[in-house]
Amino acid sequence: MIRKSFLSLMGLLATGAAQADWALNMPRGVTELSAETYDLHMMVFWWCVAIGIVVFGVMIISLIKHRKSKGATPATFTHSMTAEIVWTAIPVVILLIMAVPAAETMVKLEDSRDPDISIVVTAYQWKWHYKYQDEDIAFYSSLARPSMDARRKQSGVDPNAVDNYLLDVDRPVVVPKGAKVRLLLTSNDVVHSWWVPDLAIKKDAVPGIVNETWFRAEETGTYRGQCAELCGKDHGYMPIVVEVVEPDAYQAWVDTRKNGDVAVANAAK
Questions:
Q1: What share of residues in the chain are helix, strand, coil (percent, to 5)?
Q2: Tens-digit pLDDT profile for residues 1-41
Q3: pTM for the structure as a whole
Q4: Distance separating alpha carbons of residues 122 and 42, to the nearest angstrom
Q5: Which residue ranges in the chain fall short of pLDDT 70?
Q6: Could you check whether the bond before residue 128 is cis, i.e. omega within 30 degrees of 0?
Q7: Which domains does the chain have, with CATH numbers?
Q8: Helix, coil or strand: residue 177
Q9: What is residue 76's three-state secondary structure?
Q10: How far apart are CA 196 and CA 175, in angstroms?
């Protein structure tokens, strides 16, 4: 029984490794703020490691050196004012060291003024709608057809054979490298959450409320995310894809989208 359970666990681990790029740490990302967030995370992590080493080191040494078999006897003092001041002052200093840069980064994260591009993101069960305010471009973004086919029960399609299974869409968000992109997030039905790890963004989309966030990608590429708020039975099937391209490629995409919309409108007349 134990052997079967162990083999099953190993099989699950192997399958998971084949489907996703496992990582033990958060990504550094491709924006200035994502790098700052990563650095803050690592600073706090190493402070916690140092505190753990000191606290558990003192505790273990005390247990070994001051045990009864060594002839240790209980202390007779009630308290030490010096010790109390020290163990109060040191955590305060450590918290200030953490809090000051964290507060500075939080202020930057909320500063969405003077954007180059503004995109209204509306969440639906279970897809996203994007509207470029300055370009008169709007479209829905849904799970890509290959993933849609593979997710169906008894479809005959092997999910392992689908590139970016459940992480690809039919229409990605396209933005230019180096541009400040402001996102205005809301929802048409229930609470969703727009989450792209490489952009260091996880922002809730709440019905009747408009939340703001922003990013400025410094590297071209395709960055994937998902809805991070349990929103219904197809919660796992509403991925996010952001394509960061060079400014001239972005302008070409804008022109193509506009010309295509005009052609569709003329054909509908």
A1: 45, 25, 30
A2: 555 444 444 444 444 443 445 678 888 999 999 999 999 99
A3: 0.78
A4: 33
A5: 1-22, 260-269
A6: no
A7: 32-109 (no CATH), 117-268 (2.60.40.420)
A8: coil
A9: coil
A10: 14
